[in-house]
Structures are given as C-alpha cells and as structure tokens.
Write a structure and sequence with these properties.
Layout: E1 5-8, E2 11-12, E3 15-16, H1 18-32, E4 38-44, H2 51-55, E5 61-66, H3 75-89, E6 93-97, H4 100-112, E7 117-121, E8 123-127, E9 130-137, E10 142-147, E11 153-157, E12 172-175, E13 205-209, H5 220-228, E14 232-235, H6 237-241, E15 262-266, H7 272-278, E16 283-288, E17 301-304, H8 307-322
Parallel strand pairs: 1-4, 1-6, 4-5, 5-12, 6-11, 7-11, 13-14, 13-15, 15-16, 16-17
Antiparallel strand pairs: 2-3, 8-9, 9-10
Length: about 325
C-alpha cells in the first residue's frame, strides 16, 4: 500500500537548491498529518554529504544515487533512476520543484509511472486522504484544485511560495543502485552564468524593466537599485525581444515564473503574459507614466511618474536605510 511523502531534491555543482528545502518542509507538514515518513531522492556525483542538510528540514530518509553519469543533469538518466526508486519504495505522494529542471523531470517521471501530475502548484493539502493541489490556470486569471486518482500522486511546487521551515529529523542515508543504461543523449557543453547573481526563480527581490526602459543602457539604474536591495534584475518579453536583456532574465508566461517577496516593475505595461509570471509575488510595486497601465491592477503600490526620475530617488533612499 502506497504510504509516505517523497521529494526529489535538486542540487547543482554540489550544493542543494533552495527549492529542495521548501519541498522538504512542505512534505514534512503533509506527512505529519498522518504520521507518515518523509523521504528524499538525491541524485548526482559525490552528493552523499548533502543528505544531512535535507534532514534539517524534516526528511527522515535520503535515497542517494551516486553515479558520475548523473552529473550534470540529463533528463533521460535522472528520470530512469528516480522512477525506479519511487517504484521500489511506493510513496503515496511525490513532490518536485516547479523549476526548469523540476518541470522537465517531473513530467518524464510521471509518464514512466503512468500517473498524473499537478504542475506549478501554489498550495497543497490533504483532504479525505487525497492530495489536493491548487494551481493557477488561464495565465493566472483563476485557480483550480486538482486531485490525482492514480498512485503515486505527483505535484511540482512553485519556488519561493512554500516556507522552508526547519524541523530536524534523521536524514539517514540509504544508498541505492544508480546504474544508468546507455543514453540516447549527452551533455556536450555547460555554459555557466558567472555573474554570481541569484537566479530569478530563487530571488527574494526582483527589479524588472520593460519597454519603458528605452534601451539596454536604461537598465543601469535598475542594476543599481537591485544591488542595494540585494536582489536581481528581470525583464519583460518586449525588452528581451528587443535585445536589451538576455533571455534568462525574462519574466512571464514564456519566460520564468517568479514569486519574490518584492517585485518592482519599471516601465512594464503589464500584459497578461507578464502578469502570469509574477502575480504570485508577495508585494508588487509598479512605476509607470501611464496611469491606465494594466500592471497597476496587480500592484500593491503604484507610482505614476517617470521611472528615470523615480528609480534613482528610490535608490538613494534605500542606500540611506541600509547604511
């Protein structure tokens, strides 16, 4: 009989991603309702030492698959090993992060296990013994509740939405067979971001610019504000399409879905595709000359003025506050 909650942890370059701790804490909360165990899958090369970190956030047991063929991440290899571990241990619930890697892996694993998948969830709960998943629909215009009848019930959770509360457990390591069959694909080259900036999906503060920035040089004032706030810079699709910012900075339905504590939208009109990518932010500040811009319907605070006047003044005030 399927029992317990399992998470699939993410690590990159030997360090666990923030979403892994959010998954662990959420799994612990769900498992405590029925007194079940929380387990985790951790795949990679030389990753056994990371198991103790997962234990701090409520994981009882960590299944470690250590194999050089699992580093760096390749969908085919990771999906095969993860699916086998899930089959062998028969959890009732499996949680992934709705990150770039998590979205890729969860779909493949769900297909291998012939079960359902609720994606990009912003809330999960147990009701009547079933996992009930809340997820945005129609570009964030409404929310739907999804219940998966098949086992295991699989869901991917939106990063930065679920709190990563510590709840120390054993985090005991169980090594598993991580043999990988001949693959049809392989990584030829990994181009790493050497800027040292926090990824948009994990950032607590994002300062984004759109068409109103007038050109790539306009982003200098956003970079300065983001640095003061210890955040990172994002962009709308219009700015990316114009070549002002790289694609990795794009926030929106066709870019990255983000949920920071603070999202500052500068010169962004607020097309539905952009709103779908940032509407779950805890606090939204909009700066735009157009008082009728749709972004103001989602903003907690709005400034109708020239961003090239407002942003430098805001940066100056923030510098004084953090000094």
């Amino acid at each position: 009989m399927a029992k317990g909650v399992m998470i699939v942890a993410e690590q990159r370059d030997g360090a666990l991603r923030k979403i892994s701790f959010e998954l662990a804490a959420t799994a612990r909360k769900l498992a405590d309702q029925s007194g079940d165990e929380v387990s985790a899958i951790l795949l990679g090369a030389g990753v056994e030492g990371l198991a103790a970190e997962l234990g701090k956030y409520g994981v009882d047991k960590v299944f470690v698959g250590d194999n050089a063929a699992l580093e760096p991440y390749v969908t085919e290899a990771h999906a095969a090993v993860a699916a086998k571990i899930i089959k062998d241990n028969d959890p009732a619930i499996v949680l992934f992060g709705a990150s770039v890697q998590g979205k890729d892996l969860s779909a493949r694993v769900a297909a291998k296990l012939a079960t359902g998948l609720a994606t990009d969830c912003t809330d999960v709960k147990i009701d009547g013994g079933k996992l009930v998943c809340t997820r945005p629909m129609y570009a964030g215009k409404c929310f739907g509740e999804v219940v998966i009848d098949a086992m295991p019930q699989i869901a991917s959770l939106r990063p930065n939405v679920f709190p990563a509360a510590e709840n120390a457990k054993a985090g005991a390591v169980t090594k598993v067979d991580a043999a990988v069959e001949a693959q049809k694909s392989k990584i030829l080259e990994v181009q790493k971001d050497t800027s040292g900036k926090v990824d948009l999906t994990e950032a607590n503060v994002i300062v984004s610019g759109g068409r109103g920035m007038k050109g790539p040089e306009g982003y200098a004032i956003l970079e300065e504000l983001a640095e003061v706030l210890k955040g990172t810079v994002g962009a709308s699709r219009a700015a990316v399409d114009a070549g002002w910012r790289p694609q990795k900075d794009q926030v929106g339905q066709t870019g990255k879905v983000v949920s920071p504590n603070l999202y500052i939208a500068c010169g962004i009109s607020g097309a539905i595709q952009h709103l779908a990518g940032m509407s779950s932010s805890k606090c939204i500040v909009a700066i735009n000359k157009d008082a009728e811009a749709p972004i103001f319907t989602k903003a907690d605070y709005g400034v109708v003025d020239d961003l090239f006047k407002v942003v430098p003044e805001l940066t100056a005030v923030c510098k004084k506050l953090v000094a």
